[in-house]
Design a protein that fits this description.
It contains one helix and 16 strands. With 132 residues, the chain is α/β, with parallel strands linked by helices. It has one domain. The strands form three sheets. A six-stranded parallel β-sheet has the order 1-4-7-10-13-16, with no helix packed on it. The longest helix has 20 residues.
Length: 132
């Protein structure tokens, strides 16, 4: 019986250590390459290089990132938010494009570092706006 305790104790400690070191579950990441309507996306959203994502009345609970696009603007990476709500930040990477219109709301910041276009029309950015 004593031997079972010795074997069981390390296993119990390993499980407890795993519970203590495991943080909250990672936010889901959603890849967008199309137009979305009035739906809620829980987690973060990213637009892969060369793709276009349109958020039309969409509610995003996390952050949005338009990945770096190709240097040739023939197939730019683009993210459009028309009447959409993005609770987190929006990051528009190099050569990518972003448009917020029709009362879109960005709850965090807008970061356009070396992006091609970041246009905010009749919309709200609650955090800071960074352009370079």
């Amino acid at each position: 019986m004593r031997r079972l305790r010795v074997i069981g104790l390390p296993a119990t400690l390993a499980v407890c250590a795993g519970l203590l070191t495991a943080g909250p579950a990672a936010a889901k990441s959603f890849e967008c390459r199309t137009a979305l309507g009035a739906v809620t996306i829980t987690g973060n959203l990213f637009v892969p290089p060369g793709a276009l994502c349109e958020l039309n009345g969409t509610h995003l609970t996390g952050n949005a990132t338009a990945k770096a696009g190709p240097q040739e603007p023939s197939e730019p990476t683009g993210l459009s938010a028309s009447g959409a709500t993005i609770d987190g930040n929006v990051k528009v990477q190099e050569n990518a494009q972003f448009l917020a219109s029709a009362a879109a709301t960005i709850g965090g910041s807008l970061d356009c570092t070396h992006c091609e276009v970041a246009d905010v029309q009749a919309s709200t950015v609650k955090g800071s706006v960074k352009e370079q």
